[in-house]
Amino acid sequence: MGVVLAIAALAAGCAPSPDPDPAPTPTSTSSASAAPSASPEPAPTFAPEGAAEENLPIVKAALQPLVAAGGIPAGRSVVDALTAAGIPLSAVQVTADQTAIGLPVDSLLFSVLVGQECVLGQFDGDGFTTTTAPVLSTGACLVGATASID
After folding, report:
1. How many Å apart are CA 112 and CA 48, to the nearest integer?
2. What are the pLDDT digits (tens) for 39-55?
3. Which residues have C-beta within 8 Å of that of residue 119, sequence separation ≥ 6?
4. d(C-alpha 44, C-alpha 29), whole Å
5. What percent of the chain has pLDDT over 90?
6. In what order do the strands lie in the sheet with 92-94?
7. Contact 122, 107 (CB under 8 A)
8. What distances in angstroms separate CA 10 from CA 4, 16, 69, one per listed residue?
């Protein structure tokens, strides 16, 4: 008799149990019931006291038209795009866009100083790349000669 009870108990544990919580039924919401936003979200702005990583999207967005145009832009175009995005001219460095003999460069480097960090970028034959890094001991972001920008 004990074996029969044990088998009955095991069989009861294997039996399907009724679903106490049926799956929820999806509902749709009417767009008429959603309140329109009062105004569009403002575009992100450069935060000079923020982190380089925080400002990286602002730099990328400012340079997107130059990236979309392809090739290596003139240094002045990079500077103008960055300053138009609210980045102070004093925070920007860019390398020369021509060699010593007047030929186009193979790559153009730029930087934006953000506190004790830098947003670094490069336009070259492969496209556009950005990263962040700590400021150099000189207080600058790029090593070597940079183009004069005023």
Report:
1. 10
2. 677 777 899 999 999 99
3. 52, 55, 56, 59, 111, 112, 130, 131, 132
4. 30
5. 67
6. 92-94, 107-114, 117-124, 127-134
7. yes
8. 10, 12, 72
Q: How far is CA 38 from the centre of its chain?
A: 26
The reported pLDDT for the residue numbered 40 is 73
Cα angle 149-105-57, degrees, rounded to a multiple of 5: 60
pTM value?
A: 0.71
Only one residue has tokens 């934006």, namely: 112
d(CA 131, CA 63): 14
Measure Cα distances from 43 to 46, 105, 119, 142 in Å. Answer: 10, 33, 19, 28
Mean pLDDT of 125-132: 96
**Residue 83 near residue 89, CB atoms below 8 Å:** yes
User: Could you write out the DSSP letters of every residue in 71-135?
Assistant: S---HHHHHHHHHHTT--GGGEEE--SB-TTSPBPSEEEEEEEETTEEEEEEEETTEEEEEEEEP
Dist CA 49 CA 81 (whole Å): 20
